[in-house]
Write the structure tokens for this entry.
Amino acid sequence: MTTAHPRPTTRTEEAAVPAPVDAGRWPDVAAVPKASWPVRTVAAAVVRHALGGLPLRVRFPDGTTLGLGGPLIEVRDPDAFHARIGTTGLIGFGESYMAGEWDAPDLVGALTVLAAHAADLVPAPLQRLRRLWALRQPAAQRNTATGARDNISRHYDLSNDLFALFLDDTLTYSSAVFRGFPAEHALLPAAQHRKIDRLLDLAEVGEGTRLLEIGTGWGELALRAAARGAHVTSLTLSREQRDLARQRVREAGLADRVAIELCDYREAEGTYDAIVSVEMIEAVGAEFWPVYFRTLDDRLAPGGRVALQAITMPHDRMLASRDTHTWIQKYIFPGGLLPSVEAVDEIVREHTGLGVTRRDAFGAHYAETLRLWRERFTERAEEVDDLGFDAVFRRLWTFYLAYSEAGFRSGYLDVQQYLFTKEPTR
């Protein structure tokens, strides 16, 4: 199997942002933050330090350049660019892209270079002072039972039609598992089923299995488990997902085997032979990771199995950023945080009776999955417009998909399939 190189993002894929930006919808994009000359000067120095030694080419309007050569970042408005970075750091970097103040013909390539050097972009002295300058996560985004509903709704209740535009017909919004690279969109449904089947096999889901799914998505895993003869209880906090998933279950004639409930994982009841949870832990928040894993333990029958799919990040970067408010949290997944492999192992060991039986990593597959989503999202830009989403939203989601793809291509991010087991009663 060979690893595909990321396909450059073309100019036509980056729609221009109309002027003026809708300040009611995008207040922090429409208005460049007020930044004093010293703040802009320090920010420019940090940018020079961060980018000057990287395999990038950063070009400014006056013709000056930074970097050692490589993917191009074109800074169109240096004053705004530096003001945003100087006041809100990486949030400002993302907002500056949303505002059209910088661009990149190969956005994934440029972001992949940055992701590969994420630990070194901020000078060491400033890293040590991170608590003084980094924005803190808003208390309103804590994943309490109430907060989690609001946080999930902000992403997953955007529009079922929006997600259907770039996902495949299975409506599966997590990493697929391909047979080889590069992949094509026509192969995505089979690759998603391959991923689902691996999880169901890990959990030994079959005829008569009592299965709990935490995080329904749009129902594909529940449908596939029910087709094996399992009795599925699936939990979601998204009304949009619940409604469409229930419709799909009815249309498949499996309503007697699948119950989809609008329910927080902490409110789950009953005992199950198997539990499956796909890319749900990322939305739990570090504060509640012990509660999440204790819930898995409490709901699992002795001798049962948990199959979990989780995106992970390096442990040192997780520790450094766990209290920081990020661009992803502000605009994509409020309250979310990626765990590290070490954090998962520690929490499972200290807070549950579960054992980590198996872990398989396949980050390169997520990069391909994201590439296919990003390309389809770009191809259907006019349909995104027709749904009522503006050009800033399209740049927001283009950046999100490219940023995520870059994380996996650089190796900064990974994705794991875990098997946890519980000893049978003696």
